[in-house]
User: What shape does this take?
Amino acid sequence: MGKSFVSKGKNIQEAVDVALQYLHTHQDEVDIVILENETRGLLGIGAKPAVVRVTIKDCELAESQPDLLTDPSVLLDLLNKLEQGMELSGSLAESADSEQTAEDAELHGKVWVRDGHIFCKEAPDVYPLVTPAVGMKLYINDELIEKTTVVSENFLIVVDIDEEVKEPEWELLLSEDKMSVKLKIIPGYRKRRRLKDMDPSSHIQLEIEEKTIPAIIETDPIMDKLKELGVVYGIDYVELAAACTSEHPGTFVIAEGSQPRRGKNGWFAPLNSTEIKKGLKERENGSVDYREIQEFPTVVPGQVIGSIEPPVEGVHGTTVTNELVPPPEVYPLHVREGKGISLVDEGKKIIATDAGHPEIVIKGQLAKISIIPKIVINKDVSLETGNVRYAGAVEIHGSVQDGMLVEAKGDVSIRTNMNRAKVTAGNSIIVHKNIISSQVSAGNRNIMNAEMAKLLGEIITQVKFMLGAIDQLSKVSAFKVASFSRTGLGPLIKILCDGKFKTFPPLVGTFIHKINSSAEWLDEEWIKLAEQMKRGFLMIHSAEFKSLEDLRNFIGSAEEVLVSSAGPANDVPCFIKGALVHNSLVYSSGDIHISGQGVYNSKLYAGGTVRIDGYVRGGDIYGEAGVVIGEAGARGGSETKISVGADGTIRIRHVLEDTLIQVGPRMHKFLVGASNVYARLNDKGDLQLH
Assistant: This one.
């Protein structure tokens, strides 16, 4: 056999041309064996050169070539020089001889790996050894090697490493309403494996290096499937490309229809604001005017209040399959004429026929519009004017004097003071100056009624159980309920309360105490009911309940009170605003704001928030949602108690000793003064102070 040369190139032809150049021969004078085909890789990544072995058919043609051409290591060095653009001068034998350096001597008896190929150099006293790695097939001279073996530079060494390929998976999901298409993908990949380069050694353990190359999903099959599903609208090609090249599993919205745009029902368009404006007003110098927090808009006869606008149709949407989606239907606004208004211009405009405050109540597509007239009193409410009872709003430019009464279903505004007077309002009350020894109540829905109703419901349940227990006892021959006809059921009720119904007396006691302490806010029926409970359940010698029928009648009366307390709530927000409160009772189903000096020895109850910018000296302050106070407590004076509901918070800038605070059921008394107090219940229901 003639001389051989192993070479590589970008492709097979280039590798052959390199070999022919070094052998100084032509292609028709050699035998060519392809050892490895070239691979292009993905986007140039993982490309591998072609490797061929070229052998001269007639050895005489290569007599001028040195025997070193049969040495693969020399050929490899020459090939590397060629790839690096180095010029080779002189004969091939001279070039080969020039490479016989001390470095070559160090390779004797060694084996190594370069660019995915195994090379070795023999030595008389050392045999290079190779151990195959797991996951590869090592062939030496076409024989499969599975253990450590000797290699020679004249051996044909081939390594076969399988590549792992996982094809990507995808699925199109068309929504039921055909408004979107989702592409669910599980990415695929190709794991490219090759021999890891290893430095020369007498024995090497072959290793495999691996690189994962993501598989790109072809878009054509997806587009064909979309066409099959009838998807022709709203395709997002950018999102589709992102999905097809994603390296992570996921679901991508690759097509979306256009949602129908909702139209607008007919509506009332006021010419001017008819809402009661609530909020702090800023002065020109930047300070806040706490005296002006509410404005009551009014109209005069003939004034246009607003117009009834027709409905506006919506816009159709489109599914991904190009089907129209109708928008929701729209409806006109129907107007029910209340007092003091008239519809003109074919019902399109509303004008006032009376002076007062426009009240607009809209439920669904039905509007009730009316005028609540407001009475204006340009002087004090006194014996000269008599008590004021009015169905609308009341504005008093003077004061409310001793013993006078003002009742209004709307708002009440008092420009000066209240002194030993009583004012109630369906909505809000503004007293621009002081509230002294007076009773003030705002809000039709009495929060105390709701609180009492909760306790009463529990009492009714307990009495029903008690009635059942007594009824069972009456059927026992040794026990006759009739024997209590003269003494009443008091002794029997006491026996039951000492045994099975131990929680009942405290419950009744709490109810009676709350009724007595809040009698000024409650209707007469609550007070009568509390008195009946006291005589029937707590005074055991009383003959209030003489028979089972009396207990049943009590349950019926209690349930009537309970039902009457559950009337509809007033949706109009209400509040009370004043400058100073002294020795008074103030109730609001909304908020209370005292913006002046503060509160002295008074009781304030708010269904919302109590805010007192100044001090609190003695008394009882309760705000269901929260309390904010500048300073609380009195040195050597009356006890000061600040309370909120379980979900409320207490904030006090400065608190004096002996002040009591309560959040829900948790209480705390300050033994020393404190500043910047913030109290609330934590998630465990414990009182937390900051």
User: Anything to note?
Assistant: The longest strand covers residues 591-606. Residues 222 and 345 are 60 Å apart (CA to CA). The chain is about 20% helix and 35% strand.
